[in-house]
Amino acid sequence: MTIGNIDKFIIHFVGNKNNGDVVRFSDTLTDIENIEKYIKQLVSNSFKSEEVYKFYFRPNLELNPMYQFMSSIFKQNESFIEQSQNAGRYLYDKSVHPQIKSGELCVVHFKNCQINNEIVDCIGLFKSENKDTILKVNSTENGFILQDEKGINTNKLDKGCLIFNTKAEDGYLISVVDNTNKNVEAQYWKDEFLGIQPVKNEFHQTNEFLGIAKQYVTNQLTEDFEVSKADQIDLLNRSVEYFKTNETFEKDKFEKEVFQDEGIIESFRNFDNTYRADNEIELSDSFEISSQAVKKQARVFKSVLKLDRNFHIYIHGNKELIEQGVDKDGRKYYKIYYEEES
């Protein structure tokens, strides 16, 4: 995706309603003639994930307030200020959790954006909750003085979304950033405010299934079988390796190549079915693999074996080259075989 030129820009202030903070709306557009490049820099630095979302609402998409506000702007551009205020008012109504911070809500209308080889308009909503401190140098008669000022970091966005004017009947295509309040109680940006869910493309399918495999190996496997930490790490490595070396995912093939043992395969299938039902996840048993999703998930697949505070062993390959045992004095040990030292 690429962002085009800024057509309209407005700033509102949204406080925490439950804490008695205020909400303040602008009635005029914000002049950004000299800082447009920094806004575009902030967007390009923040929106890097290939995961895409869409508006939804049960039982009817048309009942999602944010979908209505954004649709009105796309259909009638002169309603931009009014609908941006409606979005700010709705965000204020949803800002009731004690951990939600006050901040500026920037609403931006972009022209000539590109997504999936299509040129469309786009609406950006960016909320700044954490301010960075800069030191401003001021000249005096005898030298210079430093003065601290707080402002928005142009390299990192706290919360934001880009809503692309395509697939309107399905809830548009939306890219999302949420770098704060990652605990469950404060997931108001995606769920309460925007009301979005992932588009079930190859990125979503790959990301979700790797997540399920990780949950099984790190949590459920040790409940059902006696396995060592080294065996767990080996299964995590094999899970990622399957996705790295295949273009298409086939569930049966994955289970046989990664888990191999029929008992473990049956245990995983039971866990997989229960996990999907509990978390309302819909996945296919066959899909194209997203390399970007694999790269994202691989970062959280731990391949480090920690032994007290003395040693960390990184296991990346053949688990047959590491043996676990206990000596005659009851001390635990690992024996590692290798050919070259570097």
Fold and architecture overview:
This protein is of the alpha+beta class. It folds into two domains: 5-199, no CATH class; 203-336, no CATH class. It is 34% helix and 27% strand. The chain is built from nine helices and 16 strands. The chain has a six-stranded antiparallel sheet with strand order 2-1-4-5-8-9, sandwiched between helices. A hairpin with a 2-residue loop joins strand 4 (103-115) and strand 5 (118-128). Helix 5 (202-224) packs antiparallel against helix 6. The longest helix is centred in the middle third of the chain and has 23 residues, at 202-224. The mean pLDDT is 88.
The count of domains is: 2
Distance between the termini: 42 Å
Uncertain runs are none
Q: How many strand segments?
A: 16
- Which word captures the global form? globular
Order of helices and strands: EEHEHHEEEEEEHEHHEHHEHEEEE
Task: Describe the secondary structure blueprint for this structure.
Blueprint: E1 5-14, E2 23-24, H1 36-46, E3 53-55, H2 65-75, H3 80-94, E4 103-115, E5 118-128, E6 132-139, E7 144-151, E8 159-164, E9 173-178, H4 188-194, E10 196-198, H5 202-224, H6 229-245, E11 248-250, H7 251-258, H8 262-278, E12 286-288, H9 291-298, E13 304-307, E14 311-314, E15 322-326, E16 332-336
Antiparallel strand pairs: 1-2, 1-4, 3-10, 4-5, 5-8, 6-7, 8-9, 11-12, 13-14, 15-16
Helix pairs in contact: 2-3, 5-6, 5-8, 5-9
